[in-house]
Amino acid sequence: MAVTTQSTAKTTTVSATRPKGTPYQLDPDQTLKASRALLQHVQAETKRIQEASSKTSLLAAETSDPDDDVAGDGEAPIWLTLTTKQHIVDQTRLKPSKISVPHSLNTSPDLRICLITTDPQRAVKNVVADPAFPAPLKSRITRVIGFSKLKSRYKTFEQRRQLLAEHDIFLADDRIITRLPAVMGKVFYKGTAKRPIPISIAKPQKGKKETSQKSTKTEGSAPPTSPAALAKEIEKAIDAVPVSLRPGTLVAVRVGLVSFQPEQLADNIAAVVQNVIDKHVVKGWRNVRGIHIKGQSSVAVPIWLADELWTETDDIAVNNADNDGVDDDQGQKRKRNPESTKGPQVGSRKKTKVGEGKDDKAAVERGLVEARKSKLAAQKARIFGEEV
Fold first, then answer.
1. How confident is the model over 60-86, as a mean pLDDT?
2. Of 240, 121, 244, whose CA–CA distance to 181 is shortest?
3. Bias category Basic and acidic residues: which stretches (predicted)?
4. pTM higher than 0.90 for the full model?
5. Which residues contact 354 (CB under 8 A, 6 or more apart)?
6. Which of 3.20.20.70, 3.40.190.10, 3.40.50.790, 3.40.50.1820 would CATH assign to domain 107-203+217-238?
7. Most CB atoms closer than 10 Å: which of 36, 281, 309, 376?
């Protein structure tokens, strides 16, 4: 449904992009409309809670989880959830990554950064301490720690929790990013707010093909990159949003803050959706079932819904009364009694010749497919036709 929006002085990327006649893309107008409605709802709910609350709970503040954002906090995140039709199980697609967005979620000048490197860590410390490394960024890097020291020094739950509280962002060498969950534990990976973001620290080796598996002794043999290149990589990671996936059909990514303008949120949504689908979703848009945005405790607002719940026509299972058998509880094939006197199969079945009835079966399948499409289209029109 086309939505007329008021023109603003600032031209945004989303509003300038128009659909190209295919359903497999975001509608900029719908994205902007949903962003505006969600931010208005979250801000109104925040104001209502603040007015209703006469005093704060000190106990709640002390025992709150780092991922639980307090109502009224302008830094509370806005989430994008993308559901797929088929599971994402490819290990290469499940590797943590980052997405560059037009509007950064980390704008504080007092950001505390912890840099996790391969062994030996001294080589990276020397690069950070180099005079060519930008001073403003150097002041925000409060700790550089190697993988072996991280593993030996932070063994207990309290030690890891203290490390988590001392820093705002954790950046890790992409060569060890997949080994960190076993070392850092659920303190870091229970939520998604402070999971380590992968960065490239090693200097590119020309003419050498990197292997997928490297031992701990040789993974840090490559020298670190130059101070300027490392600083650029860190700044790029700070301005990006992390993507952490696991086997399943749901992907959740932070795309904005409550303090964002609707146009800013829409810009980030467009960048994140395109990157996630291209890089992490097998079969691309055809495997996407729905895309929603939501606040920390709000309902999910749809911005895109698929007309079909399958990726290929062959995935459709049609009940056929002429099946020769059904699977029992043990997975064995057993034949039905053609002349049973109980159940829906009462009486004898009419036997057909080989090849007879195939056209009727195909017609039934096409009818079911068209009926399903019509039903989903009606549901989609009803959802998007209502005022969000």
1. 67
2. 244
3. 353-365
4. no
5. none
6. 3.40.50.790
7. 281
